[in-house]
Amino acid sequence: MVREEAESRGDDTMIDAPQISNPKPEDFFNVHYLRIYYGNLFPYADIHKWLSYGHDGKHPGCDEYYFGRREFSFTLENDVYLRYKSFKSASALEHAIKSCFPYKIDIGAVYSVDPDKRHAYSQTGTNVFTPVERELVFDIDITDYDDVRYCCSGADVCSKCWPLMTVAIKVIHTSLKEDFGFKHILWVFSGRRGVHCWVCDPKARRMTNEQRSAVAEYFRVYKGNENNARKVALMGYSLHPFLARSYVDLLKGFFEGELQANQSIFSTKDKYDKILEMISDEDIQSELREKWEKSANRSSLSEEAISLVRWEQLKNTLQSKKHKAPTLRMCVEEIVFTFTYPRIDLEVSKQMNHLLKAPFCVHPKTGRVCVPIDPNNCDEFDPLAVPTLSQLIEEINSGGSKMDVDDDDTDTSILGKSIKFFRSSFLEPLLKSCKEEIESLYKTKIGKPKDSFSW
Amino acid sequence: MEVIRSQKRTPSNDTVSNPKIPLYLTAPQMEVRLEEFELFAIDRLRVLKGVSDGLARGRNPKEMDDLVDTLWKEHMRDPDASLMFNKDIISHFVLRLVYCRSDELKKWFLSMETALFRHRFRLQNFEAQRAIVGEFGLPYKAVTGAELEGLKERLGQVVRSLGQISPTVEAIYYKVPFEEVPDLVASRRVLIQKGYAFVAGSQLVSLVVTQFRSHISKALILTNRKWTTTIREREKDRLTPIVEALSTSYLGPDYSQSTEYAEISLKDIDQVAKSSFPLCMRHLFEKVREDHHLKHGGRMQLGLFLKGVGLKLDDALAFWRAEFTKKVGSERFDKEYAYSIRHNYGKEGKRTDYTPYACQKIILSAPGAGDHHGCPYRHFSEDNLRAALGRMGLSSRGMEGVMDQVRNKHYQLACTMTFEAVYGTSCDAGINHPNQYFEESQKILKSKTPPAPV
């Protein structure tokens, strides 16, 4: 098997994608593939349009310097990390990426001045270098669920545990729309084992750190660490309407259906002991434990069936005994929430200056592209079917796609579908609304007399 | 605000609307006497520092309400309601000048004034609270009629989720953008729908506190600008020195009267120095024992500390004499040193009872060659400091935390961390006076068996 080294001889270079029988890491991701990807496939114009939020210079109300005040960071091949990069235009961004082919590209905040000129401005007084806008972002990583998934752990993910991400997307997405009234929400596959969410409404971009923190805490239910057995504590006499809706519409059904089928969380002693520890009454714990130990060998049912039977028994026991203590009142719900409720990384959401991986990047460990996920169809998303670099290159070689990404919507390549989705369901509605806002702000501004700005 | 020297005072016309808590929206149009300028500010500062102390000690909201009530009555009360109100306003605006001058000062002032406002607000009845909300001119409307009906069930759920068994929905709810009540959102204490939070009348405090904080924060920036561009220079002979002194003034207990814990006798002094003295005093004490001498700065710092710790004048004289006579002889001691020791105890001259130095003062001192006073966290080299901390019994891990604070110039925090490492306990209030360190240490030692090794 011979792989021809590619010299940059222009767009017509054919690269042989190696026949991958025993794939080695470098077959998924390497500098040569990156060159092709960033040389020909990465959607520079779309990313630029998105992050310009309508400030394309074509309207007098536009801020032509807006894009240039956005921070990007590049991580290069040898873990060299370059922060505070900024670009005046799409072509400047493109040129920079094509000159170093970063392994990772992160997007930061829009600052008060160009990040790469920040040293010219003092830290105090009126000209300060400080973030002024930033999307509200969320990061959900399946490794945070390791204590409740039995099929994989660490960096692995499979079809049995990925549904945890699916239900997380649904819960958060519904809340962002219904509770907070956000409209322009982008969900992106993180490339390996999680999802990112970008809320791009103007209101969201202007939120302060305190407000972001408040939203993150609103979403927080799981407070786990090794030291406590009961990681979800639902106090009070009922669930808050947000949690109640999530439970009734999404979590309960998922727990009793797909989760049980995939994980059989009561089928063995190790597994059910963990759940029994969440019940704060010793007597109930022993009662159930005895019952299940006795039935362990006698049953001829499948793992899944056993699990379901035990769950019913647990629910019935708790239902009849829940008046015994306040901590038993919502024990059933607590168990469901522990296994299914989204676990977001709070630190990512709380600060405006936090950097997050850009959509359409490629994950260095898997070679998969960070493609958008449709929140209205997220059941169909399969992380193991996401295009990889080698697949994309294979496709180019077999003539199945155009070498250049342009505005033509007839591109039916694997990546083209993702880009099309990005444009039609996210970018276009977003830009329409941004332009309306720029226009109306401008109209109000010129409507005012010249020196009506008081100090 | 006009600051004048005259004796008379023109009555304020600011009390017309009389909500009990002013919002400090605009600078008051009244004349203030120069003495009041400083005194009012000091009284308010005592309140703010009391608030700071309460928060640092983790008091719950109800305890803070009571604390604020007590502090306010103690320092800000006046039998004449309108005078009390004026003092409230004047003191706030003076402190704005004092605390606008750096980010650190601004942050502290903002936190404390907001907390003060929050608890004063909580102490008001509902009518007064609504009046204050009105003062802010907030555009939020009460939710009524059909809209309220449609929300009732879920509002009831919220009430139940907060621990109330019956879902009694309050009579009045305000529809407010969720951004205005971040703390209620974070703790899921409100219903949120399409970007609006439904805030109950009893939750108004969150709403106004956010507004208050936002307003004061912006005001501080403007005040800073005015200060640096015009006021500081214009007032350099009059208000500026007062303003600059106010932010560094130490307002804690002055330890001039020692408490029951703190009486020590001469025979115990070596043992007590080893077990309970903060590093600065330990060092001075060791040097006295070693060199049989201390220069003036050291004598003042250690001498006053010992007085605060409970060493009686006779014992103090005996201690210094025992050491100094090894070097200078008994006659010289009586002639040159005994007098000033007696002076420190208020037995000579104008009989001022001098107070032991607080950390602030010690940190700002400038020990020269041959001196051993000052704050070791500031004035020692890294190597010497590490050696000294090692002799106090700190492990290398404990030491790193302390050295980190030193590098960031947080000398008092470094001392606090040392305290915590030596006694195996936390010190939430933070060390700001050597005698405080001593007293806390004695409390711990007297209440339990010898602490575990660090």
Automatic annotation (TrEMBL), chain A:
It comes from the Eukaryota. Coiled coil: none annotated. The keyword Metal-binding applies. The keyword Transmembrane does not apply. Pfam families: DNA_primase_S (PF01896). One of its GO terms (biological process) is DNA replication, synthesis of primer. Its EC number is 2.7.7.-. One of its GO terms (cellular component) is alpha DNA polymerase:primase complex. InterPro entries: DNA_primase_S, DNA_primase_ssu_euk/arc. PANTHER family: DNA PRIMASE SMALL SUBUNIT. Belongs to the eukaryotic-type primase small subunit family. This is DNA primase.
TrEMBL record, chain B:
InterPro entries: DNA_primase_C (IPR058560), DNA_primase_lsu_euk (IPR016558), DNA_primase_lsu_euk/arc (IPR007238). It comes from the Eukaryota. Pfam families: DNA_primase_lrg (PF04104), DNA_primase_lrg_N (PF26466). Gene3D superfamilies: 1.20.930.80. Keywords: 4Fe-4S, DNA replication, DNA-binding, Iron, Iron-sulfur, Metal-binding, Primosome. Binds 1 [4Fe-4S] cluster. Residues 270-438 form the DNA primase large subunit C-terminal domain. Its cofactor is [4Fe-4S] cluster. Belongs to the eukaryotic-type primase large subunit family. DNA primase is the polymerase that synthesizes small RNA primers for the Okazaki fragments made during discontinuous DNA replication. This is DNA primase large subunit. The lineage of its organism: Eukaryota, Viridiplantae, Streptophyta, Embryophyta, Tracheophyta.
